[in-house]
Known about the structure:
By secondary structure, the protein is an alpha/beta fold. The protein has nine helices and ten strands. A five-stranded mixed sheet has the order 2-1-3-10-4, sandwiched between helices. Strands 7-6-8-5-9 form a five-stranded mixed sheet, with helices on both faces. The radius of gyration is 19 Å and the shape is elongated. The relative contact order is 0.20.
Amino acid sequence: MLRRANKFVMLLAPLLACAVFSCSRHGSRLVGTDGGQITVAAAISLKDAFLSMAQTYQERTGDKVNFSFGASGELLRQIEAGAPIDAFASAGQREMDDLQSKGMVEVATRADFARNSLVMVAPAGSTLGLNAVSDLARPAVKRISIGNPKTVPAGMYAQQMLAHMQLWQKLQPRLIFAENVRQVLEYVERGEVNAGIVYSTDVSIAHGEVQVAARAPEGTYGPILYPIATIKGSPHPGAAKEFVRFVLAPDGRRVLQEFGFLPVK
């Protein structure tokens, strides 16, 4: 029992540590919210867009929003362990499908709300002359970072692309797996790897420390669709549904597009 309790605390700790944004209450609330606050577990690639969106959401509803950002697979484990999450926004369908198969999401609230694409990045000033994903096979490229395909959707998509291009096995000795896609970006920014594969939306936060070397060829990886849904047993189901509706509404989609996310077709 003690070991199980410790495991829960370990899983919950990142959630508490990552509650990086909290809106103070002011203004009037919309009818239909409850509890006045929610906790949203969201893929870290959504961080900047969701923080911006939460400001507008607070102005409209007066509700307090806490976020837990991380790799979608890690957030999945937190929810499964009983973390008090009201809504989940994943970078991959796999994680949401897993929760849905276990009866842990309100299926009626599930919807895709954004798309993304992959790019290959290199440190600013790189002299390797990388212009295509196939250039990763050059002997001069010693270290390449991608997210862990088992827990990071961006890593899973990168694996699909490299496998499609028959590079996956060849590059194995050079791959450095990161805990999330933003960590891949950090490795590239610091010049600790020669290249990395991230979402196109991540590049804008790199402050010029990385350069886009190539866009991943279309059709080499599955569609990157972000689903969102409320969690069954949410402590604040009314407010959680209100936030999901806001993300799907024109104002929410506008914010996402400002941060480079593509609309759902």
